[in-house]
Amino acid sequence: MDDVLPLAVIGAGVIGLAVAREAALRGLPAMVIEAGDGIGRETSSRNSEVIHAGIYYPPGSLKARACVAGRRRLMRYLRDHDLPHAVPGKLIVATEPGEEAALETIAARAEAAGLSEDEQLRPLTGAEARALEPELRATAALFSPATGIFDSHAYMLALQGEAEAGGADFAFRSPVARIEPGPPHVLVGAEGWRIAAERVVVAAGLGTGRLMRAGPLGGLCPREYFVKGSYFLLRGRSPFRHLVYPVPKGGGLGVHLTLDLGGQARFGPDAEPVEGTETEVDPARGPAFEAAVRRYWPGLPDGALDPGYAGIRPKIAPPPGAEVADFTIQAEAELGVPGLVVLHGIESPGLTSSLALAETVCDHFAERRGPDT
What sign for the dihedral angle of Cα 49, 54, 57, 63? Predict the structure, then answer.
Protein backbone atom coordinates (compact mmCIF):
# COMPACT_ATOMS: atom_id res chain seq x y z
CA MET A 1 0.00 0.00 0.00
CA ASP A 2 2.91 2.31 -0.77
CA ASP A 3 1.11 4.20 -3.52
CA VAL A 4 -1.66 6.66 -2.66
CA LEU A 5 -4.28 7.25 -5.33
CA PRO A 6 -5.21 10.87 -6.01
CA LEU A 7 -8.92 9.96 -6.12
CA ALA A 8 -11.04 6.87 -5.53
CA VAL A 9 -14.72 6.85 -6.50
CA ILE A 10 -16.84 4.12 -4.94
CA GLY A 11 -19.72 3.23 -7.23
CA ALA A 12 -20.04 3.11 -11.02
CA GLY A 13 -23.61 4.29 -11.26
CA VAL A 14 -24.41 7.47 -13.11
CA ILE A 15 -23.16 9.73 -10.28
CA GLY A 16 -19.87 7.88 -9.88
CA LEU A 17 -19.36 7.96 -13.64
CA ALA A 18 -20.15 11.67 -13.86
CA VAL A 19 -17.77 12.42 -10.97
CA ALA A 20 -14.99 10.37 -12.61
CA ARG A 21 -15.51 12.23 -15.88
CA GLU A 22 -15.58 15.67 -14.23
CA ALA A 23 -12.48 14.87 -12.20
CA ALA A 24 -10.67 13.67 -15.32
CA LEU A 25 -11.53 16.93 -17.09
CA ARG A 26 -9.90 18.73 -14.15
CA GLY A 27 -6.74 16.63 -14.44
CA LEU A 28 -7.58 14.36 -11.52
CA PRO A 29 -7.85 10.77 -12.78
CA ALA A 30 -9.88 8.43 -10.58
CA MET A 31 -9.95 4.79 -9.70
CA VAL A 32 -13.63 3.82 -9.88
CA ILE A 33 -14.36 0.85 -7.64
CA GLU A 34 -17.62 -1.02 -8.25
CA ALA A 35 -19.11 -4.01 -6.46
CA GLY A 36 -21.03 -5.18 -9.53
CA ASP A 37 -19.80 -6.50 -12.82
CA GLY A 38 -20.46 -3.38 -14.88
CA ILE A 39 -21.63 0.23 -14.88
CA GLY A 40 -25.06 1.41 -13.83
CA ARG A 41 -26.50 -1.95 -12.83
CA GLU A 42 -28.83 -0.78 -10.05
CA THR A 43 -30.83 2.44 -9.60
CA SER A 44 -29.18 4.18 -12.58
CA SER A 45 -30.63 1.70 -15.08
CA ARG A 46 -33.99 0.93 -13.45
CA ASN A 47 -35.99 4.11 -13.83
CA SER A 48 -38.08 6.10 -16.30
CA GLU A 49 -35.13 7.61 -18.24
CA VAL A 50 -36.86 10.99 -18.03
CA ILE A 51 -35.02 14.30 -18.37
CA HIS A 52 -36.72 16.30 -15.64
CA ALA A 53 -37.28 20.05 -15.80
CA GLY A 54 -36.89 20.70 -12.05
CA ILE A 55 -40.46 21.76 -11.29
CA TYR A 56 -41.45 19.70 -8.24
CA TYR A 57 -38.78 20.44 -5.69
CA PRO A 58 -38.73 23.01 -2.88
CA PRO A 59 -37.20 26.31 -4.03
CA GLY A 60 -33.55 26.60 -3.11
CA SER A 61 -33.14 22.89 -2.38
CA LEU A 62 -30.19 21.02 -3.84
CA LYS A 63 -32.64 18.89 -5.81
CA ALA A 64 -34.16 21.98 -7.43
CA ARG A 65 -30.84 23.65 -8.19
CA ALA A 66 -29.09 20.50 -9.41
CA CYS A 67 -32.03 19.44 -11.57
CA VAL A 68 -32.42 22.77 -13.38
CA ALA A 69 -28.68 23.19 -13.93
CA GLY A 70 -28.21 19.49 -14.62
CA ARG A 71 -30.91 19.38 -17.27
CA ARG A 72 -29.25 22.18 -19.24
CA ARG A 73 -25.85 20.49 -19.00
CA LEU A 74 -27.34 17.11 -19.86
CA MET A 75 -29.14 18.42 -22.95
CA ARG A 76 -25.93 20.03 -24.21
CA TYR A 77 -24.03 16.81 -23.52
CA LEU A 78 -26.56 14.66 -25.37
CA ARG A 79 -26.52 16.99 -28.38
CA ASP A 80 -22.75 17.40 -28.43
CA HIS A 81 -22.20 13.63 -28.23
CA ASP A 82 -25.06 12.76 -30.60
CA LEU A 83 -26.68 10.51 -28.00
CA PRO A 84 -30.28 9.28 -28.41
CA HIS A 85 -32.84 11.60 -26.83
CA ALA A 86 -36.12 13.39 -27.52
CA VAL A 87 -38.14 16.18 -25.91
CA PRO A 88 -41.83 15.26 -26.19
CA GLY A 89 -42.85 17.37 -23.20
CA LYS A 90 -45.00 16.39 -20.24
CA LEU A 91 -48.58 16.97 -19.13
CA ILE A 92 -49.26 17.14 -15.39
CA VAL A 93 -52.99 16.57 -15.07
CA ALA A 94 -55.71 17.19 -12.54
CA THR A 95 -58.47 14.64 -13.07
CA GLU A 96 -60.98 16.41 -10.83
CA PRO A 97 -61.45 20.01 -9.66
CA GLY A 98 -60.15 19.22 -6.18
CA GLU A 99 -56.70 18.51 -7.61
CA GLU A 100 -56.33 21.83 -9.43
CA ALA A 101 -54.91 23.68 -6.42
CA ALA A 102 -51.96 21.25 -6.51
CA LEU A 103 -51.22 22.41 -10.06
CA GLU A 104 -50.95 25.97 -8.77
CA THR A 105 -48.41 24.84 -6.16
CA ILE A 106 -46.35 23.07 -8.82
CA ALA A 107 -46.50 26.13 -11.06
CA ALA A 108 -45.29 28.35 -8.22
CA ARG A 109 -42.36 26.02 -7.49
CA ALA A 110 -41.46 25.96 -11.18
CA GLU A 111 -41.45 29.74 -11.32
CA ALA A 112 -39.22 29.91 -8.25
CA ALA A 113 -36.81 27.38 -9.76
CA GLY A 114 -35.45 29.91 -12.23
CA LEU A 115 -36.59 28.25 -15.43
CA SER A 116 -35.91 30.12 -18.65
CA GLU A 117 -38.76 31.37 -20.81
CA ASP A 118 -38.70 28.32 -23.06
CA GLU A 119 -38.64 25.99 -20.03
CA GLN A 120 -41.61 27.56 -18.20
CA LEU A 121 -44.78 25.60 -17.54
CA ARG A 122 -47.90 26.46 -19.51
CA PRO A 123 -51.30 26.19 -17.78
CA LEU A 124 -53.96 24.41 -19.83
CA THR A 125 -57.69 24.01 -19.48
CA GLY A 126 -59.11 20.53 -19.62
CA ALA A 127 -60.19 21.12 -23.20
CA GLU A 128 -56.71 22.30 -24.18
CA ALA A 129 -55.13 19.24 -22.57
CA ARG A 130 -57.55 16.93 -24.41
CA ALA A 131 -56.75 18.71 -27.66
CA LEU A 132 -53.15 17.59 -27.17
CA GLU A 133 -54.11 14.11 -25.96
CA PRO A 134 -57.70 13.16 -26.89
CA GLU A 135 -57.76 10.05 -24.67
CA LEU A 136 -56.87 12.02 -21.56
CA ARG A 137 -59.19 12.75 -18.66
CA ALA A 138 -58.31 16.17 -17.28
CA THR A 139 -60.08 19.15 -15.77
CA ALA A 140 -56.87 21.20 -16.01
CA ALA A 141 -53.20 20.58 -16.69
CA LEU A 142 -49.72 22.02 -16.85
CA PHE A 143 -47.52 21.46 -19.89
CA SER A 144 -43.77 21.17 -19.38
CA PRO A 145 -42.07 21.74 -22.75
CA ALA A 146 -38.59 21.01 -21.34
CA THR A 147 -39.25 17.44 -20.16
CA GLY A 148 -37.50 14.83 -22.28
CA ILE A 149 -36.43 11.21 -22.50
CA PHE A 150 -33.06 9.67 -23.32
CA ASP A 151 -31.02 6.49 -23.51
CA SER A 152 -29.42 6.37 -20.07
CA HIS A 153 -27.23 3.41 -21.00
CA ALA A 154 -25.69 5.25 -23.96
CA TYR A 155 -25.17 8.26 -21.69
CA MET A 156 -23.38 6.23 -19.01
CA LEU A 157 -21.16 4.56 -21.60
CA ALA A 158 -20.17 8.00 -22.89
CA LEU A 159 -19.32 9.16 -19.36
CA GLN A 160 -17.21 6.06 -18.82
CA GLY A 161 -15.39 6.59 -22.10
CA GLU A 162 -14.54 10.20 -21.30
CA ALA A 163 -13.40 9.29 -17.80
CA GLU A 164 -11.11 6.57 -19.18
CA ALA A 165 -9.79 8.93 -21.85
CA GLY A 166 -8.79 11.26 -19.00
CA GLY A 167 -6.90 8.54 -17.17
CA ALA A 168 -9.57 6.92 -14.99
CA ASP A 169 -9.39 3.19 -14.25
CA PHE A 170 -12.28 0.87 -13.35
CA ALA A 171 -12.25 -2.06 -10.96
CA PHE A 172 -15.42 -4.19 -11.11
CA ARG A 173 -16.48 -7.03 -8.81
CA SER A 174 -14.62 -5.20 -6.03
CA PRO A 175 -16.97 -4.49 -3.11
CA VAL A 176 -15.62 -2.14 -0.45
CA ALA A 177 -16.29 -3.34 3.10
CA ARG A 178 -15.32 -0.20 5.02
CA ILE A 179 -13.43 3.09 4.88
CA GLU A 180 -10.74 4.03 7.38
CA PRO A 181 -10.73 7.85 7.28
CA GLY A 182 -7.49 9.71 6.75
CA PRO A 183 -6.22 11.30 4.73
CA PRO A 184 -4.99 9.26 3.17
CA HIS A 185 -8.22 7.32 3.40
CA VAL A 186 -7.91 3.55 3.31
CA LEU A 187 -10.50 1.47 1.48
CA VAL A 188 -10.72 -2.09 2.74
CA GLY A 189 -12.19 -4.60 0.33
CA ALA A 190 -14.55 -7.41 1.23
CA GLU A 191 -11.76 -9.82 0.26
CA GLY A 192 -9.18 -8.05 2.42
CA TRP A 193 -7.42 -5.83 -0.11
CA ARG A 194 -6.50 -2.28 0.96
CA ILE A 195 -6.21 0.84 -1.21
CA ALA A 196 -5.14 4.29 0.00
CA ALA A 197 -6.44 7.47 -1.62
CA GLU A 198 -5.98 11.14 -0.85
CA ARG A 199 -9.59 11.84 -1.87
CA VAL A 200 -12.60 9.53 -1.83
CA VAL A 201 -16.10 9.97 -3.21
CA VAL A 202 -18.74 7.54 -1.98
CA ALA A 203 -21.44 7.30 -4.65
CA ALA A 204 -22.48 3.74 -3.92
CA GLY A 205 -26.23 4.29 -4.17
CA LEU A 206 -28.00 1.48 -2.34
CA GLY A 207 -24.75 0.49 -0.66
CA THR A 208 -23.74 3.89 0.69
CA GLY A 209 -25.47 3.58 4.06
CA ARG A 210 -24.16 0.06 4.69
CA LEU A 211 -20.62 1.08 3.78
CA MET A 212 -20.57 4.20 5.93
CA ARG A 213 -22.12 2.48 8.95
CA ALA A 214 -19.30 -0.09 8.84
CA GLY A 215 -16.73 2.59 9.69
CA PRO A 216 -16.12 5.17 12.41
CA LEU A 217 -18.24 7.84 10.66
CA GLY A 218 -21.39 5.70 10.69
CA GLY A 219 -23.04 7.85 13.32
CA LEU A 220 -23.11 10.75 10.83
CA CYS A 221 -24.91 8.68 8.19
CA PRO A 222 -28.60 9.56 7.69
CA ARG A 223 -31.04 6.69 8.01
CA GLU A 224 -32.03 5.25 4.65
CA TYR A 225 -35.32 3.82 3.42
CA PHE A 226 -35.49 1.56 0.39
CA VAL A 227 -38.57 1.99 -1.80
CA LYS A 228 -39.24 -0.38 -4.67
CA GLY A 229 -40.77 1.12 -7.77
CA SER A 230 -42.34 -1.30 -10.26
CA TYR A 231 -43.17 -0.58 -13.88
CA PHE A 232 -45.77 -2.14 -16.14
CA LEU A 233 -45.56 -2.00 -19.93
CA LEU A 234 -48.45 -1.30 -22.28
CA ARG A 235 -49.19 -4.13 -24.66
CA GLY A 236 -49.74 -2.60 -28.08
CA ARG A 237 -49.44 0.90 -29.47
CA SER A 238 -49.69 3.92 -27.19
CA PRO A 239 -52.24 6.61 -28.08
CA PHE A 240 -50.12 9.24 -26.30
CA ARG A 241 -47.40 11.46 -27.75
CA HIS A 242 -46.47 13.21 -24.50
CA LEU A 243 -45.52 12.00 -21.05
CA VAL A 244 -48.46 12.12 -18.64
CA TYR A 245 -48.12 12.60 -14.88
CA PRO A 246 -50.99 12.76 -12.40
CA VAL A 247 -51.00 15.34 -9.63
CA PRO A 248 -48.49 14.07 -7.03
CA LYS A 249 -49.94 12.39 -3.94
CA GLY A 250 -48.58 10.56 -0.92
CA GLY A 251 -44.86 11.23 -1.19
CA GLY A 252 -44.25 10.48 -4.85
CA LEU A 253 -45.08 11.52 -8.38
CA GLY A 254 -47.68 8.81 -8.84
CA VAL A 255 -48.01 6.09 -11.47
CA HIS A 256 -47.21 8.12 -14.55
CA LEU A 257 -46.98 7.35 -18.24
CA THR A 258 -43.61 7.67 -19.91
CA LEU A 259 -42.39 6.70 -23.35
CA ASP A 260 -39.14 5.18 -24.44
CA LEU A 261 -37.38 6.35 -27.59
CA GLY A 262 -39.16 3.63 -29.60
CA GLY A 263 -42.60 4.84 -28.49
CA GLN A 264 -43.25 2.01 -25.99
CA ALA A 265 -45.47 3.23 -23.15
CA ARG A 266 -44.62 2.24 -19.60
CA PHE A 267 -46.38 3.07 -16.36
CA GLY A 268 -44.80 3.58 -12.98
CA PRO A 269 -43.20 3.64 -10.61
CA ASP A 270 -45.35 2.85 -7.64
CA ALA A 271 -43.88 3.06 -4.16
CA GLU A 272 -43.45 -0.12 -2.09
CA PRO A 273 -41.30 0.11 1.07
CA VAL A 274 -38.90 -2.84 1.15
CA GLU A 275 -35.99 -4.08 3.22
CA GLY A 276 -33.86 -5.65 0.49
CA THR A 277 -32.97 -5.00 -3.13
CA GLU A 278 -34.96 -7.69 -4.99
CA THR A 279 -36.34 -6.25 -8.23
CA GLU A 280 -38.77 -8.84 -9.59
CA VAL A 281 -42.15 -7.31 -10.50
CA ASP A 282 -45.14 -8.89 -8.76
CA PRO A 283 -47.93 -9.40 -11.35
CA ALA A 284 -50.45 -9.08 -8.52
CA ARG A 285 -49.73 -5.33 -8.49
CA GLY A 286 -51.30 -5.06 -11.95
CA PRO A 287 -54.89 -4.23 -10.85
CA ALA A 288 -53.69 -1.33 -8.70
CA PHE A 289 -51.72 -0.01 -11.68
CA GLU A 290 -54.77 -0.26 -13.93
CA ALA A 291 -56.88 1.66 -11.41
CA ALA A 292 -54.25 4.39 -11.10
CA VAL A 293 -53.84 4.74 -14.86
CA ARG A 294 -57.59 4.87 -15.50
CA ARG A 295 -57.82 8.01 -13.41
CA TYR A 296 -56.26 9.87 -16.33
CA TRP A 297 -56.74 7.33 -19.15
CA PRO A 298 -60.21 5.83 -18.71
CA GLY A 299 -59.89 4.04 -22.05
CA LEU A 300 -57.07 1.73 -20.92
CA PRO A 301 -58.08 -1.70 -22.30
CA ASP A 302 -58.59 -4.51 -19.82
CA GLY A 303 -55.51 -6.69 -19.38
CA ALA A 304 -53.30 -4.38 -21.45
CA LEU A 305 -50.50 -4.05 -18.88
CA ASP A 306 -47.66 -6.54 -18.58
CA PRO A 307 -45.10 -6.66 -15.75
CA GLY A 308 -41.98 -4.80 -16.84
CA TYR A 309 -39.10 -4.08 -14.47
CA ALA A 310 -38.48 -2.54 -11.07
CA GLY A 311 -35.86 -0.43 -9.33
CA ILE A 312 -34.99 0.41 -5.74
CA ARG A 313 -34.78 4.05 -4.68
CA PRO A 314 -32.48 5.01 -1.77
CA LYS A 315 -34.49 7.56 0.18
CA ILE A 316 -33.46 9.36 3.36
CA ALA A 317 -36.99 10.16 4.53
CA PRO A 318 -39.74 7.63 5.07
CA PRO A 319 -42.71 7.60 2.74
CA PRO A 320 -45.17 9.28 2.71
CA GLY A 321 -43.50 12.66 2.50
CA ALA A 322 -40.30 11.28 1.01
CA GLU A 323 -40.37 13.75 -1.86
CA VAL A 324 -39.35 16.54 0.54
CA ALA A 325 -36.05 14.84 1.39
CA ASP A 326 -33.26 16.70 -0.35
CA PHE A 327 -30.14 15.25 -1.91
CA THR A 328 -27.46 15.14 0.79
CA ILE A 329 -23.76 15.66 0.10
CA GLN A 330 -21.55 15.28 3.17
CA ALA A 331 -18.04 16.71 2.95
CA GLU A 332 -15.41 18.03 5.35
CA ALA A 333 -17.79 20.41 7.14
CA GLU A 334 -20.15 17.55 8.00
CA LEU A 335 -17.71 14.66 8.36
CA GLY A 336 -14.81 16.41 10.04
CA VAL A 337 -12.21 14.91 7.69
CA PRO A 338 -10.82 16.48 4.51
CA GLY A 339 -10.90 14.78 1.15
CA LEU A 340 -13.98 12.61 1.74
CA VAL A 341 -17.35 13.28 0.07
CA VAL A 342 -20.38 11.05 0.61
CA LEU A 343 -23.65 11.25 -1.35
CA HIS A 344 -26.90 10.09 0.25
CA GLY A 345 -30.44 9.82 -1.09
CA ILE A 346 -29.55 10.26 -4.75
CA GLU A 347 -32.74 9.10 -6.44
CA SER A 348 -34.90 10.94 -8.97
CA PRO A 349 -33.93 13.39 -10.44
CA GLY A 350 -30.43 11.98 -10.04
CA LEU A 351 -29.97 11.07 -13.69
CA THR A 352 -30.94 14.56 -14.82
CA SER A 353 -28.82 16.16 -12.09
CA SER A 354 -25.74 14.00 -12.57
CA LEU A 355 -23.46 16.47 -14.33
CA ALA A 356 -24.35 19.30 -11.94
CA LEU A 357 -23.85 17.06 -8.89
CA ALA A 358 -20.48 15.95 -10.26
CA GLU A 359 -19.35 19.57 -10.49
CA THR A 360 -20.49 20.19 -6.92
CA VAL A 361 -18.59 17.14 -5.67
CA CYS A 362 -15.38 18.01 -7.49
CA ASP A 363 -15.55 21.60 -6.28
CA HIS A 364 -14.98 20.24 -2.77
CA PHE A 365 -11.54 19.08 -3.93
CA ALA A 366 -10.54 22.20 -5.85
CA GLU A 367 -8.79 23.96 -2.98
CA ARG A 368 -6.87 20.84 -1.98
CA ARG A 369 -5.13 20.40 -5.29
CA GLY A 370 -1.46 21.29 -5.24
CA PRO A 371 0.66 21.99 -8.34
CA ASP A 372 1.85 18.38 -8.52
CA THR A 373 -1.47 16.63 -7.81
Answer: positive
